[in-house]
Amino acid sequence: MTINDTYIIIAFAISLIFSLVCTPLVVKLCNTRGIFDLPNARKMHKNAIPRLGGTLFMPSLSVGVAITLLIMYQGINPNFEIGISNIMMVVGAVLIYMIGIFDDLKGLKATHKFIIQTIAALLFPLCNLMIDNLHGLFGIHEIPLLISYPLTVFVILLIVNAMNLIDGIDGLASGLAFLILGSFAYLYYQIHAYLFSLISISLAGATLAFFFFNVYGKVGRLKTFMGDAGSLFLGYVIAYLAIKYQMANEPNGFPYREESLLISFTLVFLPCIDVVRVAIQRKLRRRSMFEADKTHIHHRIMQIGLDMHQTLAVIITLFIVLCLINYGLYVGGLQMAYIMGIDIAIYSLFIWIVELLKNE
What we know:
With 360 residues, the chain is mainly alpha-helical.
């Protein structure tokens, strides 16, 4: 084990412990102030559940990264520089985090949330953090700014809302986020981008702690939901990590990696494709894009008779299988466009099978 391995473990442990210690306090606050996610016809739960568990994601991440950096440098390092893209990410993340808290406490119209999300997403291309190279997808490499800017904003909004909307059953959003963040921690570590590895692993520690309370916490005691503050924040950080990782020949010294776009695509594919499918279905039925319903992948699976834990296991397994298939196809030399097409085909086949079972 190298010294950098130790720091990664320290960051994960600090964030995990901080969240484990503070979550009961947040649950107690929710119980005292009556801050609950109430059941209704659309939701899967039957009891009032404290809904601010995800508010600990940002402080847990901050504490984990800050303390680890202080340990690494044994105090403040005068040579440590934080780039403009990192500052922009913090500003955008705080904005997303605050509107999430406001929505959890007071409620916010979907259109208003979307406008603020768009403002936060615009911070990425404004500091030259964007999708500006398709790495040979469809034979395309560098793309003009006229396409890169709106494409980047669209992808950020897609990932943010995908993580928010897939948070429909216990453990799903946090389980997927943990796997995605753990993967990015390893990937950034491999290219010696240790700050981003620390960010990824610290947030992974917080999501793992939340997963424990969300899935195994007893109703009326320590069970909690992450709320919009948690899911939106997760989506924003994951969007940042995904876009940052795929950038080619960045000024920060990341080496060009042919497979980087495919990796980012693979890690966010499942929640994103589900949002796209639901949006298309709503459009075809002439319904509002922001109207809540029970058409997401977890709803469909539960409608065939599986419980929450079984549904969680099925979706997590599907995520892992897609990752393994993509890895095998890439190592086998298949072009990225074909791999992406196969992913869409597998997802479509899966949904078709679920629909068949649901209608039996």
